[in-house]
Amino acid sequence: MPAYQTTAEQFFGLGDEYYLAAEALQNLDDGIVAHTFYAQVTCRAHSAETYLKCLCLIEGAEFEANHNLVSLFGRVSSESRKLIKRWWDKSNKQTLKTHKFVVQARTGEVTPIKDMPGFELPSSLQRALEESKNASVLFRYSTDKIAKWVLLNFPLLVRRRILQLKPDWRDTCPTPASIFQPNPYFTDREFDGV
Fold first, then answer.
1. Is 166 contained in some domain?
2. Of 29, 32, 61, 80, which sits most exposed with the smallest number of CB within 10 A?
3. Which of 12, 110, 101, 100 is nearest to 53 (CA)?
4. 37-58 and 154-165 are packed helices; what angle lies between their axes, rounded to 10 degrees?
5. pLDDT tens digits, one per residue of 66-78
6. For the packed helices 154-165 and 125-132, what is the interaxial angle rounded to 10 degrees?
7. Number of domains the chain contains
8. Strand (E) or helix (H) holding 102
9. Residue span of the structural domain in which 28 resides
10. 189 sits in which H/E element
C-alpha cells in the first residue's frame, strides 16, 4: 500500500469529484467542449483509479502507488471483478451501439467510427482496460504517445460495487443520483439482479 494514508471513504469522495468534473466539462458549450477533451479524459481516468483504490481498501487488498488501471483492477477481489465484468458486458451491449463517433484529441474534430479504418470500441472489459490503462498519465501530460480512453462507464460500475459493499455511502455526494447511473438503458433494479 502507498505511504500516504488516504482512507477508502476519501478515495470514494475523490472519485465522485473527478467524475462530476468530467461531466461538467463534457456539458460545456460546443465551442468550448472540444478544447476540454484532455481534461475530461484525465478526470474520468482519475475517477476510475480512485474508485478502484477505494474498492481495494474496502476489500483489504494492497496496491502499488501507480495509476495503472489493469494493475488496480487485478487487486480487487475475484467476486468484484466478476460482478463488474458482468455489468460491463450487459451495459455496454447498448452503449457500444450508441457510440457512433470518436473525438480526436488534438483537434477536437468529431469523426464517425465508420470513417476510421481499424478503429473499434473494445467488446471486452479486459481489452478496454488494456487500451486505457495509463490514460490518466498520458492525457494529463498531453504526451505525443497514443492514448485511448475506451472504458466508457467503467468508473460508475466500480462505484456501484462500492455502494453494494458500503450502502451508507450512497448519499455522501451532494449531487443528483441520476448522474451516477451507469447506463441510461438500465435501472438500478435490473443491475442489482445481474
1. yes
2. 29
3. 12
4. 30
5. 888 889 999 999 9
6. 110
7. 1
8. strand 101-103
9. 8-192
10. helix 188-192
